[in-house]
Fold each of these.
Amino acid sequence: MAKARTGAIMLALPLTAFILVTFIAPLGSMFMRSLYDPLVADIMPETVAALEEWDGTGLPPEQVYALAARELERAREEKTIGKLATRLNRDTSGLRSAVMRTGRGLKRAGGPPWSETLPAINAAWGEPATWQALARTGARVTPVYYLNAVDLTFGSDGGIVRQPEERRIYTALFIKTIRVSLTITLLCLAIGYPVAYLIAHSPPRLSRLLLVLVLVPFWTSLLVRTTSWIVLLQQQGVVNDLLVRFGLIPDEQRLTMIHNMTGTLVAMTHVLLPFMILPLYSVMRGIPAVQMQAAMSLGASWPRAFYRVYLPQSLPGVGAGCLLVFILAIGYYITPALVGGQSGQLISNFIAYHIQTSLNWGLAAALGCVLFVAVLLLFLLYDRVLGLDRMKLG
Amino acid sequence: MKLMRINPGQWALRLFCGLAFLFLIAPILVIIPLSFNAEPYFTFTRGMLELDPDAYSLRWYEQVIFGEQWQNAALNSLIIGVSATVLATVLGTLAALGLSSPALPWRRPLTALLISPLIVPIIISAAGMFFFYSSLSLTQTHAALILSHAALGAPFVVITVTASMAGFNRELLLAAASLGAGPARSFFRVQLPIISPGVISGALFAFAASLDEVVVVLFMGGIEQRTIPREMWSGIREEISPAILAAATFLILIAVLLLIAVELLQRPPKKTE
């Protein structure tokens, strides 16, 4: 028995190690990024260390000014000052130009006392808030990205405050993502339930044919299906052309169905519908049709027989399908990015935006971690109710 | 349908499902004729509707088949897809054998770990992989994409092979051993042929997943690592040309072939065997 045990472990070991390195470690590195941000501390180590001695009120002593001037000068030479400026600006608006100007100004600036020279180059160095920002962002381990992910930030006194109005977007975005995912789940259920019912209770030959109609989109590339919806829904697209040709709408009033929320809802429902139909079908196939006949022969009307006999037995499929569609929807990126326009963007689009465009990796990681925890909780629920190891494909 | 007598309700169900199937299939079918459009539009021209042969052309196929950009993309998709599939299939099959053994400790958490790449939304996996490989300065390499796609594809192999192991009679291994076969020999001669439908369909799932994956490629791939879906992504975003419809038609063809292959493999074996 011990030999069998060792054998089984040896077989499972290579993939376990592989997944730990290529999947779990990346997740861990995302978690790290969301909490650990050494950028400011690496560029201005001595200033940050000296600021730790400072009590945070008024202006720091001359010695701190001198260190800051030296390290800013070095950052300019090493061309890291841009990153520093961006990072400080994320904390306090306006610091980007202050830091960049200081960098340029230091070249022809005089010498000590730096507590007069620096504020002369840029007035920001005469403000306690600037030094507080430097001290705050100098902490290598920081909860600030999680605060930002829920629209909070550090105030100038170090307390936690709400973001300024124009930066308050993520709570609304999380709520919108959940609302859109729920809508898509319900749309998929409304369309998928009758379809799965029809497939499950058709004669075998027909049932197989209908199942193929579900499996073809399931196997077709996501990008292909998203492209199809652009072709169909755009202003000069097939649907608008048909509506105009049949005189349902005038040519100059073509409907805007893409690059907005409608586009996201339609295309994502299409993409996720097979994930609803397949689990529903596999549960419904096991419900004997004769039970409904029996209920109706005993005098139940069709709706009553359905409600009392059929529906309860199909609920495991409903649960599996809904949870699967909801979880897939909540993390969807490609489809909203291509057909969602401005209004159809979800939380994943902002994660991608912060990775690729704004380069605010800490915030991207924190948003990712929040989403990850949400999905994890949903899957624990799924496992509790239905069992993960019963997951099947195709 | 013997479930109920023919009545208006049943016709309503059929009509509703008919529309639902139209919704599922029509968007995919509409791509195919449009990819033969002679004009650079995404919509049916008057000539196409009148079935004028001049309104149809193969110019977009020419562009996709002979264009250097698309050729490179196809090559990259193939290199990354095949390497990732081989890696995922070998590791996944071994792991599934281990998971099917009753002697394995912590089976449930281990299964959850091994299929977790399938469960975590791709945006999160891709973000994590991006941070991880950028801290190793390995972004914009084929190796990082192959490893990532292998991790994303392995759960498919684990699931399909575990499923086919459920029907595997372990006494056959004892029989092979009693006839003098070593573990390797009995695996390749007895076990593998029996579970091969599971192995192959897992590999097909993994390959399809890699062929369709674009988020990881977007985050980590450079110009040198552009794959077919990556090329389609910029085609949709930047210069909309029916060339992407021609590429899409190829992908639909591949999807149908993969579907047929998996369906044939998952048929229960004939009783005569």
Note: DSSP finds 19 helices and two strands in chain A.
Amino acid sequence: MSLYALATLFNGPNQTGSSRMLGLGASDRYRPDGPIDLLTAGLYNFVTSGSLICSDADLNLVLFQNDDFSGSFFQLSKSRDSGNASYWHTGPAASALVIASNRRNTTETRLSYSDLFRGEWDSFLDGKLAGTAVSREGEPLLTWRMFPTNDQWLDAGRTYLRIHQPLHVHLDWWPDYSASMDYHLVLYVDGNHHLRCWVADWECWVDGGAKNGRIHSSLDPQVAAGMPELQNQINGRLSQLDGLGAVKDVYYLPGRQLASIGTGTLGGNTSDDVTIVVVS
Amino acid sequence: MTTHRGGFGVGPNHAVQLATAHTSASLNRPDGTAGGAASAPAHDTVAKVRRTKFDAAPWCPPWVQKMATEKATIEEVVHTAVKRAQRHTTEETLVEIETLLNELSRDPEHARQVRDALSKDVIADLLMKGAKP
């Protein structure tokens, strides 16, 4: 085991002030740094400068608007072949994530979460909702959920793809209700070195009101029952990627990054899209 | 609305104004959300996450405790830590030293000492060792 990438964050310009190092070892993919870590180092929303150095993989330092690695993000990336680099930054830094990409002797295939799953989701949900009093309220939010803390259904050590779908519940005579459903997906490499998915949880929210309980009673079992069916449908789609060869790893980058940005910067929002990187 | 600005090198002349990002949907669940979890499949290989949390509190490596007892300066601790990193490039040692130096670097003056001791050449040397199979 060894160090192969190091990002340093300073709260002053030109690498001054208090600082924090985020290292990555040879087998590490992610190094999250949450709001508490940044706060105690005087770096919460005050990452002003720093340096990036890496050897065997590209290094991506991503700074987020929100405490939970979500919202507006700014990514500083350094190619493994371009020595060390110093950077400057202004803007939110409520959480930070270091991600290794493009590791030497591997091949990466980059896919858009939205491109890959939106069609599957629409056909899955529209089939389920046909002839019911519930309709889809627009397109789903397809984003990620990284290392969720204080969550009774999700694991703080995992990374998830999130599907959030607003719904509209029509009631005879009675005013309509808003509702939403969520699934969290985990992409993983199975024993045959294929990329597969499991649906980790389901969630259902309904507007408060007199009919809340009745709607929950009707909607919750259907959302829960949809987990295995959605999982099978997605795995059917993922099996089309088996031709990529033996998959070694899968990880995510924020936004739409279908090509490596090398040494450079990128801004966006985690709600825009998620890039699924399949490593073979 | 939030906007980041940043880039490589030094100075605001290289600033790039980014497109305004829209607000993401809140990940906090509203009251009354129902839900349930499923168990993971048997063969579930996922990307590895580096963690540097130590359970013992207050955390302090024995060699640092010894130096503190001997009234060593912070600068001496920093230099010793860097030498240890150069001598023993194991994951355990590196994580320990990273944690120690991050603790010390909460103070700007100590951060400066760490920055000076952990020069680009020293880091490059550590990474070169890391690059070996």
Note: Chain A touches chain B through 103 residues (CB under 8 Å).
